[in-house]
What we know:
Number of domains of chain A: 1
Distance between the termini of chain B: 144 Å
Number of helices of chain B: 4
Radius of gyration of chain B: 71 Å
Largest sheet of chain B: none
Strand order of the largest sheet of chain A: 1-4
Oligomer: heterodimer
Amino acid sequence: MADPIHQFIIEPIVPFHVAGIDLSYTNSSLWMTISVLTSVTFMTLATWKKAMVPGRIQVAAEMMYGFIANMIRENIGSRGMEYFPLVFTVFMIVFIGNMLGMIPWSFTYTSHLIVTAALALMIFFMVIIIGIYRHGMHFFHLFLPPGVPAWLLPLIIPIEIVSFLARPITLSVRLFANMMAGHLVLKVFAGFSVAMIAAFGTAGLFMGIVPTLFNVALITFEFLIAFLQAYVFTILTCIYLKDTIEIGH
Amino acid sequence: MTKVRHTLLWAVCILLARVPAAMAEPAPEHGETDPMAAHGAAVDAAHADAAHGAADAAHGGGGVGLPQFDPSSFASQVFWLAIMFVVLYAFFSKKALPDLGAVMKKRDAHVRGALESAKRQKEVAEGLQAEYERDIENARLEATGAFTAAEKAIKEKADAGYKAFQQSAAKQIEKTEAEIEKAKAAAMEDMHSLAAEIASQAAEKIIGVETDLDQAKTLVRSLKAKAA
Lengths: 249, 228
């Protein structure tokens, strides 16, 4: 019986260590490479002709371009376009990673907390560093919402600080947990079908159809989740980056 | 949605832990005796499976169930993610996005230019149409004027012709009437002469006298005058 956890195991492909640290090229690294190659190939093909009347691939790439550009304009404002390449890269890494994860026998690198945490912490520290660099001490007004009566401040400020510190945690756990849970459920249902056949023979063959059909629905749902979580991750990135452009109060 | 998914996940995981047991041979190495033999064996096997899975994962490193919480792979994952991120960022920011943006901007400008020129041409066309309509109106007025003038001229000419014809016809009638009168007089005169001649010849034949023709004519005339 297949272990539903098995799909998350990191297996070294080219093991190597630097100063005692294991930096092996693993199946996770392999799928990151495939993801990067997919993005690069896609964008290269899309910008190959630079056609006035675009072909299918160019239209798809332009839609993604517009999608991210609009997201930035709506959530940060037009000054946020300086983060366009960053946000686009974040979206593509997460989105393609989620989508590649839907291929059977692939590895979903976004289902690992350390990957999502690394992305979330990068954004978190970027916001702090750029924010303080640009706004100086005014950056800490972030923790001081306007119009709050003075006697509430001792309560509000710690809440604001905690919610700020929780950003990288919620951002990374949301993506990781969704991807892991989704893939676990898929695997569990698939295993359910096989187990039915093994347990009940011919009768199990018919009973096994039920979890299989359920799995078909779940897979469609997982595709939605794969896109949705990439979208959520990206839009929250935008919202957090907004603090480097302007402090709302 | 996430909450629902998680609840579902755990429910399924618990279920799953029992299902493989149904197919796995009852694990004899776990010799706990259970009165409910089949069910017990299943639970047993599930335990064995779970323990096995955990052992597998633990074999990988940290001794925690999920590979996600095994820190031995963290450095490698972060390292490769950083490389990939930098590569992708460089490619997107230096090549792909500027290229794509340039094409979209160019198309935008092209479309805007085309729209503007269309607008200009429409204005020109509207000007031409107004001019054309003005010309048509002028021509119509001109035609009406010319028609009225021609009608008037024709009427005048017709009136003049009619009047001239009337006059000449009246004159002609008068002349003809005079001629008729004259012819009538001449005819009457002829009749008188003939009557006188016939009378004188008759008198000569009957009574044998030579009669004077002029005298007879005078007589006829007087008789005629008497009869009238």
